[in-house]
Each structure stands twice: as structure tokens, then as C-alpha cells.
Amino acid sequence: MALGNRYKTAPGAGTLAALILVLIFGSPWYWDWAQDNTDPDTAGGWWLRLLAWPHWRFDSGDSLREIFVDDLKAILLIALTALFLYLLPGSQLARARGTISQFFAGWASYIFAGGFAALLTTLFLANPSLLGAFRSAGSGATYGLFVGWIIGLATLGGRRGTR
């Protein structure tokens, strides 16, 4: 028996999509490839590098604090995406599954998650500053704006989190 969209929840599908994005495009291998093979002065190169924003790593050449902050940012991005998908009312108030409000709620969840994950992890840097926190949150929100449509598409057609 196939488990089609009948059993898919919008928050679950969006969280799974966020996890896949972070695992694949946040991996050290993809990040190295993007840095070596893309031109940041082109739209495609910029976007391919942006995909690697919440990268996770385990490089012994970096300080433990830097590794912790990057890994925490990736973990928080996924966790906050799940939280915001449950909290945003767009998909819950929609009369029918697959509406445009469900798409925008998923997209907005990723924008908020990216901004807040970056903002919160700035607190763990060696010399955190308010300006650094604002810049970091801006880069996280930029990532969510340009990549979050994938999460929005993943949430289409799913039922709300609880029945």
C-alpha cells in the first residue's frame, strides 16, 4: 500500500526537505566543491555558494569553537524550521491543502529559521557583537529567502501537523 500525500504532514515534509538540504549542500565536500568550482561574481555561482551557507564540518585545522558554531547553526536551522512550520498559521488556516498560503508559510518558515539560527549562533563566537549578530542574521535570512522556496514546495499538499 502506497503512503501518498494522505499521510504527509506539511511540517514533517518541510523539515525533511531542510534536513536533506543541510546534509547534502552543507557537507564539507559540497562546500569545497562550490568554493573551488564556482564564480561568486555570477548569479549561478553565487547561488551555488549560498546553498552551502549552513555548512557543517569536522576539520581538525579549525578551532573547536568555530566547528561548534557551524554545526550548531546547521542543527538549529533544521530544528527552527520544524518549529516555525508548526507555528505559522498559513498552512493551518488554508481551506484546502496545496494552496499558495501553505507554500508561503513553508518558505517563510525557512527565512525565519535561517535568520534566527544565525543570530543565536553568533552568541557563541569568541567576540560577539551586535553588528556581527545583525550581519549574521541578515545572511541567514538571505539564505532562507533564496533557498526557502524548496521548503515551500515540499510542504504543498501536506496536512497540518495535528489532527
UniProtKB/TrEMBL annotation:
Keywords: Membrane, Transmembrane, Transmembrane helix. This is Uncharacterized protein. It comes from the Bacteria. The chain crosses the membrane at residues 12-31, 72-91, 103-125, 137-157. It comes from Mangrovihabitans endophyticus.
